[in-house]
Structures are given as structure tokens and as C-alpha cells.
Design a protein that fits this description.
Length: 476
Amino acid sequence: MKTILKEKLAQRDGDEGTKRGLYSAILLVERFLKYAKGTDAELAVLKEQVQRLLKTNGKGAPKAQVPSRPHSTRPCVRSAEPCSTPAKGSPKPADGSHRVQRVAQIADLGQLCYTLPPLTVERKGRTKMGDFALLNKGLAEVSRRQIQEEYNTKKRNQQRVRTDLSGQIREMEEQRVANMRAKQEALKDMDRKIHEHQDELEEQHRQWLEECKKKKGDRDRAVMDANARKQVQKELAWAQELAIVKNAKAELRAQQEKEHRIFLENKTELVETAKLNSKRIKEKFLEREEEKKHDAALSKQAMQMAIDRENSAKAAVEKIAEKGRQMLKMGGMDELVAAREKKFREELERAQRDKEAYEREQDRIAAEREAARKQREHDTVLTLDKQMRELRARKQKEKDELTAFGRGLARDVENYSVLENELEQARRLMNEDNKLQVVEQWQTEAQRRYADQVGVMSEFETARNKEYLQIALGKA
């Protein structure tokens, strides 16, 4: 609208009222562009104000303007000279009066002449002598026609300007509506593309969640398999330990039966020995039970650590999924989508690395457990072989006298001191990081030492019982 008004203002040359109306309309549009918010209601009010300014030529009702010269310098109305010179090109009246022409010129400028009475175009006018007389009717009619023609011409020009401006405003309005519709269609297409892209991202996220769930199930199954293997190995170790304890108990029962026979022969000398042996056996059994409880507590602690690691991994996966859902809710912008896809790829790579590390760790643990199992089997074979050798040695040593008894007693005391030192070392090793491996090694060593201890005690008891038997026979 401002551009159109400026073009109209540049095209108009002679009509000052139209120029003034166009200039006022341009100022109004500039104030609108500077201060208004641009709503439809404000635009409608602006259009009405522009049309009203064009109709009134940029002003309201005509007002009399005070002349720039003082009142004292105004020419006398009774002088024979005219109040002003006629305009160039205007016809001179026959009687030499220029007042009607002056009125026409002032009417074009929107001003009033103070040298004439207010009703200058009426039938009466002020004459030289001061009275009123009839003017020339022909001159008055010519003046009226000239004024009316100029007024009609001005009105036609204003109407043409308003018509052209209304047409251009209508075209601009239609163009604005067309642009708005095109923009709405573009926004609809953008929304449709955004929805399609969001659906695609949701499908990718759903596939990623399914893959993560599948990987989690594989990890859970691997953990369950590892726990099952660990439980089987533990049961095998306990079975071996129970077998060793059973053999030891059988030997102890045989020894107790033998001691009972000796006790029946020599009750007074053997009753204290039996009590002492029972006390030692009970102490050993209690120590063994305490070791079992300690091993169970360590196993439970290791299991709790594995559960905590699994829960932390679950929490991390859930946190990543929550971030993905929040980014999907925000969705629509390429930067966020690219960042989320990059984040998903990084998480997948991290999960793959974690899986590979977990598999390597499981393979390492399995290899260590297999090596420990083989070592335990080897130690068991060595223990059995040693027990057989010790059995043969005990049979040979039963033929010895008190010298063999002294050597057995010294060996027993030495083995007990070594056992106490190694148990203290095992307790210190239990405070280190790799507790499960230390527990398994300690169990293996404890089984072997227990078997050795049982063999030493059997040898000691055999020699001592032989001595008691000789003493009893000597007394008899």
C-alpha cells in the first residue's frame, strides 16, 4: 500500500489537495508499519483511515487560515485598485473586477480571502461606495461554472485515485490470501513429512529395543549358564569333600573301635585319651563347619556383586531408552534426529563392546575354572596316591617301637604349626580382589591338608595305641 501511494503521489502534479491526502496516507501507513502488530482488525481500520484521508484530501472541514501579513498592511477595500492580480490565462471580465477570479484561486488553494465578505459568490458584493448592489449576472454565472467544473474535476480525480487504489489493494489482498494458502499447504506437506520421519524413527527405535531385549536375554541366559556351571562345580567340590570326610570318618570309626577294644582291656589309661581325641575331632569338625559358612558367605557376596552389576546395566539401558523417547517427543528437526541417530549408534557400539568384553571375561573365567578343576583333580589324585603311600608307610611303621612314635609326634606338631601359618595366609588373601579364585584355591589346599592331617593323626594314633597295648600287656 505504501508503494502504491508513493507512485500515485509521484504521478500527481497540479492537485495540491490530492497530494496532501496521499502524503497523509503515506505517513499513516508508515506509523502502522512501525507501531502496529499487523492483525486483521488493525489492517481493516488502516484501510478505512486511508480511504477517509483520500476523500477529505488529508484534512477535515476547511478552516480559515490567518494571513501571513499584518492587518494594517491589508489593501483598502475602497480603493479603485483590485485586491490581487488575476491569474495568468484566466479571462478578464468586462467591468475590470478581479474579485471573483481571486475567489476561484483561493478556493483552489482551500483558503479564504479576508478582503471580501464571507459570501463572495452570492448575488451581492461590496462596492466602492460601501453599499450593496447587484453584480453582473453573466460574470457571476461564469464564476460559478468555473468553480463547479474545477470541483467536479477534482472529485473525478479523487474518485479515480480511490478506484485505482482499491483495485490494487484488492489485488494485494488476493495475492496475500494466495500466499497464505500456499504457505499453509507447504506447512501441511512439512507436517506430513515430519510425521513420516517420526514414524520411521519410532520403527527404528522399536527394532533397536527388540534387539536390546534379545541381547539382554542372551546375556541373562549366559549368566544363568555360568551360574549353573558354577553350582555344578561347587556340588562336585562338595561331593569330593564329603567323600574325603566320609573316608576320614570311616577311619576314625575304625580307630575308635580299636580304641574301644583297647579301652575294654585297659579302661583307666585310655579313657582320658578317648576324651582328648573326641575333643580334637569335635574341634576339627567345628573348624570345618566355620570354613564352610565362610565359603558360603563369600559365594553369596560374589553372587550379589554380579546381581548389582546386572542391575546397573539394566538401569543404564533404561536411561538410554528414556533419552530416546524424550528426543522422539521433541522430534521434527534434522539436528536432533542426527544427534539421536548418532547416540543410538554409539550406544549400539558400546553395547557390542560390552558384550565382547563380557564374552572374553566369561571365556577367561571358564578357562580359569577348568584349570582349577583339572588342578583339583590332579591334587585329588596326588592326595589319593599320597594316602596309599602313607597307608603302606603306616603298615611298615607299626612294626617300629617308641622311636617311630616320637618321630610321628614331632611330625604332627610341625604339621600343625605349618597348617596354622597357611590358614593365616589364606585369611589375608581373602581380603584381596579376586575372592572367588582365592576361595577355590583355599578349598583345594584345605582338602589336601585335611587329608594329610587325617593320615598323620591315624599314624600317630596307631603308634600310640601300640604303645598303650604294650604297656597294658606288660602290666598284665
